[in-house]
Amino acid sequence: MICKFKVKRLLNKYFNLYPLSVNQTEEGIIAMAKNEKERILVINGFENYGFSGEDVTIKGIKYKVCGLNHENAMALRKALSFTAPSRVLREQRSFGLGDRLGISTHGHIKLFKRYDACPIFAQQSIRELNLTERTYEDVLDCVSFNVLQDGFKKPWGADGDHLKHEDEIRYALSLGFTMLTLDCSEHIKTDVLGMSDEEVLSKTNLSGELKNKYLNQDIKVEDKAISFSEVELARCVLTYSETIEFAKKIYFEYVDGKEVDFELSIDETSTPTLPVEHYFIARELSEAGVKLVTVAPRFCGEFQKGIDYIGDLGQFEKEMKIHVAIANHFGYKLSIHSGSDKFSVFEIIGRETKGHFHVKTAGTNWLEAMKVVAKCDASLYREVHKFALSMFEEAKKYYHVTTNINNIPDVDTLADDKLVELFDNNDCRQLIHITYGFILTNKDSKGNYVFKNRLYDLWDKESEEYANMLVKHIGRHLELLYKGMGK
User: Fold this and answer.
1) Residues 349 and 371 reside in one and the same domain
2) DSSP per-residue letters across 157-174
3) Is there a single domain that holds both residue 406 and residue 311?
4) What are phi and psi of 306, to 5 degrees?
5) pLDDT in tens, 343-359
6) How many CB atoms are located within 10 Å of the residue 361 CB?
7) Looking at 72, 99, 119, which one is the last position of a domain?
8) Same domain, 359 and 340
9) pLDDT greater than 70 at residue 2
10) CA–CA dist 72, 52 (Å, integer)
11) What are phi and psi of 282, to 5 degrees?
């Protein structure tokens, strides 16, 4: 039998290994290395897991050199369980890290080795996949390979984010995603807001059961009182009945009894979720047997993409207390969507939830990547910036922002070392934030990418710079959340 120490020593001699990636078990050794062109898997043993690649013999010892493709990612997740996602949403606190590029996990891992919040490293919506021309296979595989590379052995999750349709849900779950975020926006009757009280009552046939359950009742959630008028109850029923039925259908068909956590998203609406609405939805689903792990209400104020909270902090804190009480009463935690860069409210969230939260970020990771471009390749950044301006009106169709591009300085008037300061400008942040898909997929008349390959080449060259920027920037999010918790 070949000495495993000898195998490991030869691996180190003949391959440019990532030292934290070397894993040795009774079945063999798996490690990651980087050759002149790309990263690879180097394997000795593990014959029964389906790894495909080139067989190599060195000093009489057989190895398999494997590319980082989907087939080998699936084999890796079977061979080393820590490279596969698990159910972490139900832990005390969790943090979603949408990586639109497939290159951010290295920085995320450096940060989350320091914190006890459970990371959701793989988190993408179908909208993001379509805009970046990526797949869920790619999203999950990129994380698995990076988890191996950096030796991250704590649990992490995978979120099929903002899924609206059953085919999307089946797709994510078929790959082993451990969290489903059900976006109910297509089932929320937003036109009810504009109806008069008389019209709402005329369109709603409140059953005796509903009236007995909600009207003239002393409803307590922790130390908070909630009461319904007949009109408020009617508005809840008219607005959210279809939402509740949709959530029940998805839960019992795709979640109940499965290894997946269920998040309900009711935040993609134009108006805040009132406490009576939150309570009504939670109670109806609870009594139907739906076990929610997290709920994302639409909070007061505005959670726009890539910038700080806009609104009354006092009102936010007051309403947060009620939403937390409702969540605690029904046994789930609050989820804060569009959590990127909401620095003014993180302490409030940490304090009022007592550290029992889920926060989602996505676009801010992309913004930090573009900040690297502005810092390290001024010419390329200027090209991208001007293209983003040309695509701004089209990009606004996908996101709600209040960007005023007239507030963005002309990049041709700025010195190279001043370009990075554009990312302190909220209007520029939103410009670059919402045009990511157009930037990454833009092609010339011959079908060649205009920016994508040059951007990825730069990010590969500056990978440690990007990782360190993520540690600092995402770290600021966590520092404030933990400060609110008194830590």
Assistant:
1) no
2) -EEEEEE-SHHHHHHHHH
3) no
4) 75, 10
5) 999 999 999 999 999 99
6) 25
7) 72
8) yes
9) no
10) 7
11) -65, -40
Residue ending a domain, among 21, 40, 72, is 72
Answer whether residue 77 is part of any domain.
no
pLDDT band, residue 399 (cuts 50/70/90): confident
Q: What CATH number does the domain containing 239 carry?
A: 3.20.20.70
**Residues in CB range of 395: below 8 A, 6 or more apart:** 388, 434, 435, 437, 438
| 23 within some domain | yes
Residues 293 and 337 in one domain: yes
Looking at the structure, do residues 267 and 410 belong to the same domain, yes or no? no
**Same domain, yes or no, for 41 and 59?**
yes
For residue 315, give both structure tokens: 């009102």
Answer positive or negative: Cα dihedral of 202, 203, 208, 213: negative
Q: Copy the structure tokens of residue 239.
A: 């607005």
pLDDT at 192: 95
Residues spanned by the domain of 448? 365-472
Q: Is residue 194 part of a domain?
A: yes
DSSP 229-248: -HHHHHHHHHHHHHHHHHHH
Structural domains in the chain (count): 3
Distance CA 29, CA 22 (A): 7
> Does 412 lie in the same domain as 344?
no
Stated as kind and residue range, the H or E segment containing 428 is helix 426-434
Please give the structure tokens belonging to residue 141. 């595989």
Q: Is residue 326 part of a domain?
A: yes
Q: What is the pLDDT of residues 195-212, one digit of tens each?
A: 999 999 999 999 999 999
Mean pLDDT, the chain, whole residue set: 96
- Could you tell me how far CA 271 lies from the centroid of its own chain? 23
Residue 126's nearest CA partner among 164, 173, 96 is 164
- The per-residue pLDDT for 203 is 96
Active-site residue set: 161, 263
What was the pLDDT predicted at 398? 86
Instruction: For residue 478, give the H/E element and its range.
Output: helix 463-484
Tell me the two tokens of residue 218: 């002393």
Structure tokens belonging to residue 120 = 């959701």
From CA 479, how far away is CA 473, in angstroms rounded? 10
Task: Provide the percentage of residues in the chain whose pLDDT is more than 90.
Answer: 92
Q: Both 335 and 370 in a single domain?
A: no
Does pLDDT of 6 surpass 90?
no
Q: What pTM, to 2 d.p., does this model score?
A: 0.96
Q: Are strands 294-296 and 219-221 parallel, antiparallel or unpaired?
A: unpaired
